[in-house]
Design goal:
This protein is mostly helical. The chain has helices at 6-13, 21-39, 49-64, 82-86. 51% of the residues lie in helices and 0% in strands. This is Putative phage protein (Predicted DNA packaging)/uncharacterized phiE125 gp8 family phage protein.
């Protein structure tokens, strides 16, 4: 079960309709999978604030930027600041 909820993501996006709830749920699951992969450990409940913010930022970004290419600009796979929020939680294997 996702740690971040659809209503939380809708608040992040300032959405007030239910038309995209299934898509938002998918974006949350994808963002949580990316975050868990980046930090090198499964996500636990409750999420630390920085990890919760990273999931919200990433899911919101992927909702708003649905294509890998855009005219007139260089889209990023991960929005600025997400990895900075996650770096202190990363498990390092040396």
């Amino acid at each position: 079960m996702p740690s971040v909820t659809v209503p939380e993501l809708k608040a992040q996006l300032n959405l007030d309709h239910d038309l995209d709830d299934a898509l938002l749920s998918h974006q949350i699951e994808a963002a949580e999978a990316h975050v868990a992969s980046f930090i090198g450990s499964p996500l636990t409940d409750p999420l630390p604030a920085a990890i919760r913010q990273a999931v919200l930022m990433l899911a919101a970004y992927w909702y708003e930027t649905r294509e890998t290419a855009q005219a007139g600009g260089a889209p990023y796979a991960v929005p600025f600041g997400v990895h900075d929020l996650l770096q202190p939680h990363r498990v390092w294997v040396v």
